[in-house]
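note to self: dont lose this again. the chain is below, predicted strucutre after it. 237 aa total, dont forget to put it in the shared folder this time
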Amino acid sequence: MRILLLAFACLLVSGCFSGPSTPTLAASSAPPTTTTTTTSHASAIVVPLTTDTLHFATAPDLVPARPDGASDIVTRLPTPFQPDPAVASGKSAYLVWTFDLPTDLPALKANVTLWVDVEGSVLGDPFPSAGGCFWNLALQVHTDAPAFALSMPADLTSACVKEPLQVPTGVRAITFDLPLAQTTLQKGTRLDISIDANAEPAPGSLVAMLSGTAQHDSQITITGLGAPLSASALIQR
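---
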């Protein structure tokens, strides 16, 4: 009997000290936070693709796309002693590149980079009145009048690059920083870029401009020109 009472007492003591079991925290059933990217099917805003730089091709062409030709376009520049053959037909004494303005320009500010090649014996500044100018470049409003006609318009802006009396030979780049022309030009105005050299070349010599390749990319940049680029031209850029 004492044994049974003792066992019963032990059971009572065990229940007092054990207490209720602590519940286990269950894992959160909420889904993990994720970032969802949605694709809008609205039409993308198309921004007109334009450039302020035109590249010299075969005269009289200027193009907005960078050149990708396999070989240079070699343009022999007219000189007072070797004029452009077009003079004989009464058209122009100079080589001229022409383009139409795609937008209004409140002023004309431009710079030009030309790749040139001089080969053989070439004397610069054969005319003292030229002031040492050898390479000459000018922008004018287009005219169909003969070169030295009285109706020929004045230069909008022009610049020259000087050379020593004996012009160095070889291929190199020259730059023209054309002065700002404070004149308003309307969209559609046709401009001419004329280039010539005050040179006295010996027989068999060469005074030429190179263009048409990535290596020799003769070009003009006009502030605010905004010439449109085609999709193929954009890929090249």
